[in-house]
Design a protein that fits this description.
heterodimer; A: alpha+beta; Ubiquitin-like (UB roll); 3-stranded antiparallel sheet; 10 strands; 19% helix; globular; B: Glutaredoxin; Glutaredoxin; 6 domains; 5-stranded mixed sheet; 4-stranded mixed sheet
Chain lengths: 202, 794
């Protein structure tokens, strides 16, 4: 199947979501809440592209290509909205990157630097809660104030992490009884330093 | 406190009755809460043991829906409505007044003795009586901050009497009929007491009349209202009556059956007249014209399709509905038309969805039908028939059309739904009704039962191969569930998270089946279309918007209520002619249409016609039909903040732009309404609003910035004034204070009325308000006979 990306034709399989097709073809599509192969629902809106046929902004991680579809991945409008979503996420994130255990894998940090996002744009270092680290299982720890509510850890555990509340006050929580249902490998899936591995002895 | 064993036993009974599937979590939790008044942790443990529900699902669902609670509440629950109409009439002051009266401190919501709990609710749907308060099942309105003690006293009195409506209908052939509206709003204003008075008077006077509860007349501001129908066919209407006037009215129209009674009544009446002057300013002496003038102007200019039969139809009288042409359309469709012909007819009529988007209804039906025929995409589920859902999750603060349609015209909605089922090839339908509308749930259930008995629902309807049945699902309190994909999620036992479309529900909806979701009002118009034909229907309205639209008219307007007007009526006609102008003779400033997804249309554009496209161009939307009139004393920044605050707390929290973006908009609006904003905040607000409109995931998020964008467009100057610390209307409390002028004569009324002791008691001297103590509840302003208390800039 053929689609048109930034006015250039591109041959795609049509079997995979746009983000995978585009990335394979060499386009740089950033994303926070998407991990190829893992269960996910679009939430971060960082992977946004514009559908030129109806002028709608669509998350490329949850949209399948259709024949002849025309999309735009690099206009100013798209870039501005992507940066804004990163800035909004930052405004609710305990960004103390210097001392963060998860900074090496943190995509939020990486994308902020890359997009020159200003983390003070919406509210001056918004009060985002105290530093609190919860021991989950083995070497796995959870720091809620760094969570961006992408839901990857919720969708990819069985009776483990879950959402609590709604709207801006929605949190990701782990009930005491469910901690044993969660494995250490989850740390890799988390796009920020909210879930990380810590060796107590070090 | 109940022991664990009892809780387990009761929970077991509930599980046995409802089931153990994951998708049943909401009905299970609702039943548990109804049993225990909250969700006790022992009951939840039992759910983990006995059902498929696990902790993760339970926390996720129970904390999403506002109706469900994990802590016990007091014996009685006071719900203070903070819908739009109540908000502009000072609902927050009412809430504060209740808290003061009940001596609630800090974050407490339950009184120390466990008698009352208090909470704010988005909308009780009695906007014409704003501000409204509901205590348990009883609705009170209008409730002013100074009257909360009276309301509590009245409630407690009722509690003691435990007054039940005694049904009284004489066995003898009736001399006539007395009709009363028994909807929520009517009951709130005392129709129940009038009903009791009618029953009492009939017994006492020996009059035999049929007492008939009827559908809403729509004149919610003129209630209690009774219609007296005499055998000669005359109908006399009495608005705003009091229980003690009932006897007089009945005597005027009906002769008591026995001669002895008549004589006794005459004598008693004579004595009454001598001893009191009551009969001289009696309601009967007011000329009919004067009595009902405002109702007549209210009813003129309306056109009835959805609300046909208003004021004389008994909502639950199936035979009467049939005798007036009900279910004719269904019979015509099922026995004489193919499903495709029904769809074509609906398409030809041009009707567009009344829920907000304005999508062509016929086209939606066609999509569902076509998807049913394409090869099945979900082999594991098997090819299942489509399903029809009636969306009655009317969550807009300031809107109550769907509630009235469900309560007053349940049979018409059901008829429309069965026809929709026939057209798309479904065999099952679901009513999704909002948690706050218990009366609607009861009536729809009864109406469904009656239809089943009559063979209008179930197997082989009208002896054809078509079978269809409908069940009811009660929402659990989440505005976002009005969005169709979120509604489906909640039916499946999940959080009300919307999902990205496509796939549309028409393709893959409830449990993967093609799903048709129509709004209550849309379905209530279908029978008219089929019965009278698409051409007849299309004659009403404008070229791009056919038919009529039901609006809930409320806010600062003289005669609020439920109205149905042809599309193309101008806003000014609605406000001035039907609504009788702005309350208190103030100038019209704007009309807010479409609730939190809509916008404010300024007075100078109110000559525009009501039409889907015209409203969109002006930055509002038709929405579901809430129409709140704003006057010169309404602050537009405050209105914008009000709606943003609403969507912020109702956002599901899934996507970044809605979850964080709207919160950041609210931060800026908070700064604006407290006088702490900078000029560049306005630009930042606009930029955020435009971005959210583009990038949010679902309809709720994409339309949430509309109230801000439309007020910025038409009232930007007011935003700029707020940056300079000026709120001309005095609505933004932080920017004004109350002051007593030299007109004060020292009568001490204000000092006595002040609940926070901010005014010192100084007889015959000018009083002074201590600004630190003053909560600006406004009680003193109302008390002062000399208009000596004014709002001034801080």
């Amino acid at each position: 199947m053929k689609i048109i990306v930034n006015n250039q034709e591109l041959e795609v399989s049509g079997q995979r979501v746009l983000i995978d097709e585009l990335r394979e073809a060499g386009y740089d599509i950033p994303s926070m809440c998407y991990a190829s192969g893992a269960k996910h629902h679009p939430s971060c809106m960082v992977c946004m592209v514009r559908n030129e046929d109806n002028d709608q902004m669509i998350p490329s991680c949850a949209t399948y290509p259709t024949e002849g579809m025309r999309i735009d991945t690099e206009s100013d409008e798209v870039m501005t909205l992507r940066r804004m979503s990163i800035e909004l996420l930052l405004s609710d994130h305990r960004a103390r990157c210097g001392v963060c255990e998860g900074k090496e894998k943190c995509r939020l940090r990486e994308l902020s630097l890359q997009m020159k996002a200003k983390w003070t744009r919406y509210g001056p270092l918004a009060p985002v809660g105290e530093k609190m680290q919860i021991h989950v299982n083995g070497q796995l720890y959870f720091e809620p104030a760094k969570c961006i509510r992408c839901g990857l850890c919720v969708y990819n555990t069985q009776d483990g992490f879950t959402f609590k509340g709604r709207g801006f006050n929605m949190q990701v929580v782990i009930p005491e009884q469910s901690k044993s249902h969660v494995g250490e490998s989850l740390a890799e899936l988390c796009p920020t330093g909210a879930l990380f591995l810590k060796n107590e002895e070090n | 406190m109940e022991t664990k064993d009892i809780i387990y036993r009761k929970t077991d009974a509930i599980i046995d009755r409802i089931g153990t599937g994951r998708e049943l979590i909401i009905p299970l939790l609702q039943a548990i809460q109804q049993e225990f008044n909250y969700l006790p942790s022992d009951a939840l443990d039992r759910l983990y043991e006995r059902t498929e529900i696990d902790r993760a699902q339970l926390i996720s669902v129970a904390t999403f829906y506002s109706q469900l609670r994990m802590v016990p509440y007091g014996k009685h629950i006071i719900k203070v409505c903070i819908g739009t109409a109540c908000h502009v009439k000072g609902a927050n002051n009412v809430y504060d007044a209740f808290r003061r009266e009940l001596q609630l401190e800090g974050d407490n919501i339950t009184t120390a003795d466990g008698k009352y709990s208090i909470e704010k609710v988005a909308c009780l749907g009695c906007c014409a009586l704003a501000p409204v308060v509901q205590i348990d099942e009883k609705i009170f309105g209008p409730v002013l901050p100074g009257k909360v003690r009276e309301v509590l006293d009245e409630f407690e009195k009722m509690e003691q009497e435990n007054s039940q409506l005694s049904t009284f209908n004489s066995q003898l052939s009736p001399q006539g009929e007395v009709r009363l509206g028994m909807e929520n709003c009517c009951q709130a204003s005392g129709t129940a007491e009038v009903y009791a008075a009618v029953v009492e008077a009939c017994k006492e006077l020996g009059i035999h009349v049929r007492i008939k509860p009827v559908s809403c007349v729509g004149t919610c501001n003129q209630v209690p209202l009774i219609d007296v129908a005499t055998p000669d066919g005359n109908i006399v209407r009495y608005p705003n009556i009091k229980p003690d006037e009932v006897k007089e009215i009945l005597l005027h129209h009906f002769r008591p059956a026995s001669r002895l009674r008549r004589l006794r009544n005459v004598i008693l009446n004579q004595i009454d007249t001598f001893h009191t002057d009551q009969t001289w300013d009696n309601i009967l002496f007011i000329p009919e014209k004067e009595r009902t003038q405002s109702i007549n102007t209210f009813l003129d200019g309306q056109f009835r399709i959805s609300t046909e039969g208003y004021g004389h139809l008994n909502p639950l009288d199936l035979d009467e509905y049939i005798s007036l042409g009900g279910f004719e359309a269904l019979e015509k469709a099922v026995t004489g038309m193919s499903p495709q012909q029904v769809i074509d007819e609906v398409l030809k009529s041009g009707i567009r969805g009344r829920g907000g988007g304005g999508f062509l209804t016929g086209k939606k039906w066609q999509l569902v039908r076509d998807n049913f025929h394409v090869e099945c995409k979900m082999p594991n589920v098997g090819c299942q028939l489509p399903i029809v859902i009636c969306n009655g999750d009317e969550g807009d603060p300031g809107a109550f059309m769907d509630r009235i349609l469900l309560e007053s015209y349940p049979l018409r909605v059901i008829e429309g739904m069965i026809m929709a089922g026939y057209a798309v090839g479904a065999n099952e339908g679901i009513f999704y009704i909002r948690a706050e509308y218990p009366q609607a749930v009861i009536r729809i259930r009864k109406a469904l039962d009656m239809c089943r008995q009559k063979g209008l629902l179930g197997e082989h309807i009208f002896d054809t191969d078509f079978s269809f049945d409908i069940r009811v699902f009660e929402g659990a309190g989440a505005f976002v569930c009005g969005e169709e994909t979120a509604l489906i999620a909640s039916l499946e036992g999940k959080r009300g998270f919307p999902h990205l479309r496509p796939p549309y529900p028409a393709q893959e909806g409830l449990n993967g089946r093609p799903t048709l979701i129509n709004n209550v009002e849309t379905l209530s118009q279908i029978s008219y279309i089929v019965r009278h034909g698409a051409d007849e229907y299309a004659k009403v309205g404008t070229t791009s918007s056919r038919g009529t639209k039901v609006f809930a008219l409320a806010g600062k307007v003289n005669h609020g209520g439920l109205i149905e007007v042809p599309m193309g009526t101008t806003l000014r006609q609605i406000v001035e002619e039907i609504g009788g102008g702005v309350e208190g003779g103030e100038a019209l400033k704007a009309v807010q249409i479409g609730g939190p997804s809509g916008g404010c249309i300024p007075a100078e554009l109110c000559d525009a016609e009501v039409d889907f496209d015209a409203l969109n161009q002006m930055g509002a939307i038709m929405g579901s039909g809430g129409m709140v009139v704003l006057s010169e004393s309404s602050c537009m920044v405050d209105v914008a903040r009000y709606f943003t605050n609403f969507t912020c707390s109702e956002s599901c929290g899934k996507c970044t732009f809605c979850r964080v973006g709207i919160r950041r908009m609210l931060d800026i609006l908070d700064r604006l309404t407290t006088g702490q904003a900078q000029m560049e905040d306005i630009d930042r607000l606009e930029e955020l609003a435009l971005s959210i409109k583009k990038a949010a995931l679902c309809g709720l998020g994409k339309t949430a910035p509309n109230p801000v964008l439309s007020t910025l467009r038409y009232f930007r100057k007011e935003y700029e004034e707020h940056v300079q610390g000026i709120c001309k209307t005095g609505s933004c409390k932080e920017m004004v204070k109350l002051e007593i002028t030299d007109d004060c004569v020292g009568c001490t009324k204000c000092a006595r009325s002040c609940p926070s002791e901010a005014i010192a008691y100084t007889p015959y001297e000018k009083h002074v308000i201590d600004t630190d103590k003053c909560t600006q509840c406004g009680l003193c302003v109302g008390e002062c006979d000399y208009q000596a208390i004014v709002k001034v800039k801080v």
